Amino acid sequence: MRVVVFIVALMVLAPIARSDSWSGQVPAKARALAERGRALHDAGDYANAIVAFTQAYAMAPSPALLFNLAQAYRLLGDCDDAALMYRRYIATNPGPERSALAESQLAAMERCVQKLALHIAVETANGGLVVPPPPTGLWATATPPGPSHKAQIEKDVGVGLIAGGTVSLAVAAFYAVRAHNASSDVAAAYARGARPNEIAPIDSRGKSAARAAKISGGVAAVGIAGGLAMYLLGRHDAQTPVTVAATGHSVEVSMLWGF
After folding, report:
1. Does 197 fall in a domain?
2. What DSSP line would sit under 166-190, residue for residue?
3. How far is CA 118 from the centre of its chain?
4. What is 41-101 written as a DSSP string?
5. Is the dihedral of CA 246, 251, 255, 256 positive or negative?
6. CB 3.0–4.6 Å: which of 94, 112, 153, 177 could bond 98 by disulfide?
7. Where does residue 232 rank: exposed (0-12), middle (13-18), buried (19+ CB within 10 A)?
8. Least trusted range by pLDDT, from 42-46, 139-143, 251-255
């Protein structure tokens, strides 16, 4: 129980260690860099604290500096480097209490590394948030080429047939009106007592107009229906949206068809 209380107190009250464990002659510059690193650490400037601790360690290696580097990396949100420094510090056999503290922090950093590997955001010890970069090379979209020549021809033919069918429909309407007028003229001629030879030309004109209206109407129906079918076929051939997405260990292919 005393060990646990000591560890908690050390984590709260002593986030970094002093480098009093240096043995032998220590360059003054190394001590100055270590002090500067502690000041930067206390000010929350962990990146520059790491630089100062690293320079001091290069001049005079000390287990305490390894612990300080691990703490700074942890608070900066660099779980991987923090775990490395904790391992190196534990390897120096700093003593049971400090080893227990470092091992507990190491376990937390290893969990952090695993989360980042799974692209899960991790909250840092100082309240920040480490957002892992998106996976590279895992997502791709297969964009189909532009409309083929065949598809464009089909669409053009479809538009032409629809236009021709519309014209034929107008012609059919014109002849239908003429046939109706001729039928009215025949009825009027019978009403006024006209002779058959006078009515025959009007009736013939009406029948001819009726035949022309029927033929034009049929052509219009075929043209519009065929043109619409050709246009939709060309549009279908021109649009083949295919999306390919690699999701971890599998690949998803999505195809959307629209008319």
Report:
1. yes
2. HHHHHHHHHHHHHHHHHHHHHHHHH
3. 18
4. HHTT-HHHHHHHHHHHHHHS--HHHHHHHHHHHHHHT-HHHHHHHHHHHHTT---HHHHHH
5. negative
6. 94
7. middle
8. 139-143
Paired tokens of 153: 């021809």
The pLDDT of residue 10 is: 39
168 is a domain residue? yes
- By residue count, the chain amounts to 259
Residue type at 248 in one-letter notation: G
> Looking at this protein, which amino acid is placed at residue 190?
Y
Cβ–Cβ < 8 Å for 119, 135: yes
Per-residue confidence band for 139, with pLDDT thresholds at 50, 70 and 90: very low
* Two structure tokens written together for 13: 């009250």
Query: How many Å separate Cα 259 from the centre of its chain?
Result: 25
* Number of structural domains the chain divides into: 2
Is residue 140 domain-resident? Answer: no
Contact 44, 128 (CB under 8 A): no
Q: Using CB atoms within 10 Å of the CB of residue 174, give its burial: 0 to 12 exposed, 13 to 18 middle, 19+ buried.
A: middle
pLDDT tens for 5-23 read: 333 333 433 456 665 555 5
Residue 137 counted as domain residue = no
Pairwise CA distance, residues 87 & 93, whole Å: 10
Residues 207, 75: Cα–Cα separation, whole Å: 97
Please list the helix, strand and coil fractions of the chain in percent, rounded to the nearest 5, in that order. 70, 5, 25
